[in-house]
Amino acid sequence: MTEFPKNFLWGGATAANQLEGGYKEDGRGLSIADALPGGKERFQIVQNPDFDWTIDESKYKYPNHVGIDYYHRFKEDIKLFSEMGFKCYRFSIAWSRIFPNGDETEPNEKGLEFYDQVIDECLKYNIEPVITISHYELPLNLAKNYGGWKNKKLISFFERFAKVVLTRYYKKVKYWMTFNEINSAAHFPVMGQGLVPSNGANDKKNVFQAWHNQFVSSSKAVKIGHELDPNLQIGCMILYATTYSYDANPVNQLATLQQNQDFNFFCGDVQVRGQYPSYTKRLLAEYGLKLSDLDRTDEELELIKKYPVDYIGFSYYMSSAVETTKKDNDKVSGNLLGGVKNPFLKASDWGWQIDPTGLRIALNQLYDRYQKPLFIVENGLGAIDKPDANHNIEDDYRIDYLKQHIQAMAGAIDDGVDLMGYTPWGCIDLVSASTGEMSKRYGFIYVDLDDDGNGNMDRYKKKSFYWYQKVIESNGQEL
User: Fold this and answer.
1) Which residues does the annotation mark as catalytic?
2) pLDDT, tens only, 99-149
3) How far apart are CA 288 and CA 478, in angstroms?
4) What is the CB-side half-sphere exposure of residue 87 using CA atoms within 13 A?
5) Domain extent listing, the chain
6) How many C-beta atoms lie closer than 10 Å to residue 430's C-beta?
7) What CATH number was assigned to the domain covering residues 9-473?
8) Sorted alphabetically, which PANTHER family does this protein's record hold (predicted)?
């Protein structure tokens, strides 16, 4: 096996809205995640024209309200992360804990104190915090009463939020990311941009305007961070799905090139290179738009150019295949985007195609394009885990998935890729973002809680817990 760098950041990743709970405690306001019903129909429900972010507990269950009660049990959980040997822990700050409605001028001190404790608990075990500033948890007020990220007022609200948290924690936290999976809005703008059909999701102009506002906001965060400490590392975070042409048909090859540009690269090109890419004109024209339709100022474009991100964080779960010439292809689901079934790949319980080689390709594609450090901040297998009577979980399928992806990482390092670290998703079981289920489990740690909210939330170590412990201890040599 290739030797991983000595300072390689092995760890795990979570998001506040999926595990914290305590959704009304200590002054926290509601977030858009609190308004997402649980269950496999979650995405269909929020795409209904009449969905207006109303929380109706007589009709739906809202598992994000409780999560796995990390708000009260974070010390126990971080201790378990330390037992695995985590070098880092990626988590997010719930915006509505700091600014309950998003538009206040003064932060909620109780919310800041909570993250003081979380950060200090990490540092107690020499775990480097890696913080996502905005991870699918826009304050609900900003979606309902401001129309989400298409409203330029959100730039100043985010700037205030970023300034508060960066100023509070920069002496203890070196690694940051601005927006989680920012490009996911190409297919589903509800979580990243706070847009649903009732407030403009179906008009692509709103999606592109929201992205622009986020690009400006991201650069403002980089500016704030670097003025506090030039050594802070502030990255972007994209959802990456390695994309193949189904065959050698030049039509499909061109479609694959364009899908890569439009989905995998567009947001990264702006945030890493500091300017809109040349193909933006073609991309906008596909929706009957042009650049002049967007509200962009010279000052904003200069800010984007002057303050690009320091590294690229990305999620990788699956690859995608493109076939545009036939209409009767078998389809598969995936992480917010599906595609044509790839006959060479197997799929997870939820239909996501498993492709470790695609991760090596992704790492090479991203590094060739940007020549900036890469950080795999999400990767993992959502599966149904069945404990025995003694709470043992033999999750060899998860170990096999992660082992193959780590081998692909080693191959990419051999290829010359500068890879900072690896934080598998859902290092502890939590509420799924796509389905609102607990039964779709990713963790090394099992949480006794089902889709209906039944269970005592006790934590149990899976077989993969001990496997990952050895991986970290051996710096990737023992798989």
Assistant:
1) 378
2) 999 999 999 999 999 999 999 999 999 999 999 999 999 999 999 999 999
3) 53
4) 18
5) 9-473
6) 27
7) 3.20.20.80
8) 6-PHOSPHO-BETA-GLUCOSIDASE ASCB-RELATED, GLYCOSYL HYDROLASE
